[in-house]
Structure formats: structure tokens, C-alpha cells
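Form P-L/3: holo structure prediction, ligand manganese (II) ion.
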Amino acid sequence: MVLNGMAFAQNPNMPSDFLSKEWHKERRQKLREKLPANSVAVFFANAVRNRSNDVDYVYHQDTDFLYLTGYREPHAVLLVFKDKQKAANGDEYNEIIFVQPKNPIMEMWTGRRLGNLGTKEQLGIQQAFNNTEFKKYNVNFASFDQILFFDFQNDVRNEPRDSSDLYDLIEQFKVKVNYPRKDALSVQREQPQNNLNTRGLFRIMAELRGVKTPEEIDMIRKAVTISCVGQAEVMKAMKPGMSEREIQGIHEYVFKKYQAEDIGYPSIVGGGHNGCILHYIDNYKPALDPKELILMDLGAEYHGYTADITRTIPVGGKFSPEQKQIYDLVLEAQEAAMKICKPGVSFSTLSDATMQVITKGLKELGIVTTDQEARKYYPHGCCHHIGLDVHDRGLRDLEENMTFTIEPGIYIQENTTKDPKWWGIAVRIEDDYLTTKDGCEHLSTYAPRTTADIEAMMKQPSPLDNFKLPELDKLNKPKK
Ligand code: GLY
Ligand code: MN
Ligand code: MN
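OUTPUT (holo model):
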């Protein structure tokens, strides 16, 4: 079957709603407009990461690379030039990509590849070559005032049987640009010695990626809505005695049911005290107690774009008075930030607004006496961009068409307050928003958020009420 000649939209093996090649091309043009005079920006695909022995982690593209190209495979490098360049044959170009070549034997084992021809046709990058060409491809890097790239972390494996894998592409690039042999960042900071710029792209990519296009907003809406359905379905399905892992599985099943290919970050599902661990991803607790809360922070990743939503609910279906007091305080803090978010407002202003509410409330409840003490129970900021990364690139002052979260929380560990009635109460409420011209749109409204709405949703029947699996012990007994 020839897949190269087929556009994604007509390919029955691929989703039909990836961002178009024209969209990615426009992103490269926007990048070009922001580049300094006489410069080139160089981006490398993400590394393949080894899980153990001969099994690798599922590949995830570098998000800048995906944003600029739509290319989802490893072992590739992209060059975006500020100005037109002239090839040996007289052709003019202002971008080049080197990709992994087609290889029928490898493709039978590890999946289809676009190759250089598929990259030209399906991703619309006319100067597309196989990565085996990169070493001898002549780019006069010395002629640029600036070569911009993200510095290397030295965490890429070399595949010895492949002489143009990511490791080799980086090594070849280093030779071409005369990269200092010592750690570049530290050397450059002290004595800039050439045209290498390993810092400029942070700001440029934050400006570009922080403000979303309508096509991206559609993707994010989809990821957010899918994640909200996950939260609502779990509220219906929740029963005391379920495990954290099972709850995680229900969310992630919903994500996959709607064709979200991944989670945007490891799912956080913490019952009781586990909710106090901000990024708790063990999810090992085998049986949840009806008296405890469960904090669930999960995001579906749909075609690269991720949501980031947290709901905290009572396992037994009803908040205790203390749980409700803490919950309502976190909700009030979130609403204080929601009320003031609009273009021009900074993340730190939003964070301060949530902190003020929480500090005042914790004092009124007799849990703290000073502002400093309150920080112990709410030790994180409340906002970040979302997009291709869960903590997406972007500037810290809101502009129209930014997508971001507001996520205050209160986490009360054992032995921290005098009165043990508060111990083990951990609440985070996290919602996703889009900045509009003069305010913000709350995107994650489908997931119930007030204690009354959560309790009402938890009373609804679930399609999983009748989902019974056989008992494992009865299925596979050792033969006597
Ligand atoms: N899920 C990570 C965060 O909320 O920032
Ligand atoms: Mn978050
Ligand atoms: Mn989160």
C-alpha cells in the first residue's frame, strides 16, 4: 500500500483532523518573522527514550518540532532561515528538514515512516531530505550572525547500527557550527566566542506558542471536554473500595474512547493523604475509604494538545463538614482569580488573588495565624499555560487567545494542625480557561465543580455499575 502519496485526510489509518500542512507552514513563517537579522533557527526532534532492555517508551515528539512541522517521527532536524538561501542548483529556499529515511524492513517492525518524499507531500516542506544527507549537506553556518537552537542536555543515546540517528545529527551539527567542546551554556555565558545563541529561542517560541490560533483552540477545547467527561464519569462510577489505579483507568479509558492518543502528563489520583503529594503518580492505594477525599488531576492529550483538570471528590459521595469548609475555600480562591483574569493581568496577580483568599480563610478556620504559615498549606502557584505541553511555553502576562489554568489548593498533612479533624484533607480545583478580548472563557465547565453539583453527579447511575469482571483467583488455578 502506498501511503506516501496520500494526504492524511484521505488515509484510513490516520485521524483526519490533524492540523494541516498549511497551518504548520504558517507557524514557520511566523517564527521567521521573529528571528533576528541574518539568522537560522535549528530544531531537533525528540530523542527515543529507553524504558528497559529492548523496549523503548512510546515516542513523543518534541513540542516545538511538532508545532513547526507536524512531523511525528524521531531522528530529524529542521532549519528555518530568516532569509532566502540559494541551493547549488540555483533553487531558493528558506527552510530544510532532514528526516529518517523509508526502510521497508524497519517499517514492518516499528511502524510507517514518511521519508523525504512523504514529508514533501504530506507536510509540505519542499526541501526535505533523508537524514543520511545531513552530514554532507553544505550550509555555510559561519555566514550567519546568529545560529539559534536549544542547547543540548547530553541525554541522547547513540544507536550504533545507525549513522544518522539523532545522536549523530547532533554531533554532525556541532562540527558544522564549531560548537565548543565544553558545556556550551557555561562557556558562552562567560565568553561569547561565536555566533551560537542558545537562549534566544525561549522568548521567541514563548511569544509564538503562548497565543493560540483558532485551530489550536479547537484542539484544546476537545482535550478539555474529553477530560471533563472523564471526571464526570468517574464521579458516577466512584464506589468505596475501588483502587486509585481503577479510577485512573476509568479516566484514561474515556480519553481513549474519544481518540485522545495519550495523557498530557502522568495521571495523579490520590486518596486521602496521598492528595497532599502534589504530583502523586504512584496511584497504588488498593482500596479507597468512603470517609476520604480523592484528588484527581488528569488531562487527555488530543493530537498533541493537552488539558489539565483537577477535581477533588468525596469517595463516599458526600463531603464531611470539614471537607466542605476547605473545599469551599479553595473554590472561593479560584473564583477570585477567575473574576479578574483578562488581557494585561499577570499570572502572579492571579496567584496573589488566590493566596489572599486562602490565607484569610485558613486564619478564620483557626488553622493558621500568619501569612507565612498559610504558604505551607498552599505551596504552589496557580497558573500556567496549556497547549502542546501541560506547562506550555508562553509569557506571564495574559493576552487574548491564551489558554491557561487556575489551580489553587490546600493540602493538610498529618500532624500539621493542632486539631486532627483537618488531617488528610487535600483539595485542588483546577480548571482551564481561554483569554478573550476583555475577560476569559471557562472551558472546563462540563466537569461539576461545586460540592452540590459533585454530590448530585455522584448520585447518577454509571454505565460501569454493571461492568463486572471475573475474579482472577478463580480463573487460573495451579493444576494439582
Ligand atoms: N498536572 C500538573 C499541574 O497541575 O500543573
Ligand atoms: Mn496545572
Ligand atoms: Mn494539574
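COMMENT: The pocket of glycine (ligand 1) is lined by residues 265, 297, 308, 390, 407, 430 (CB under 6 Å).
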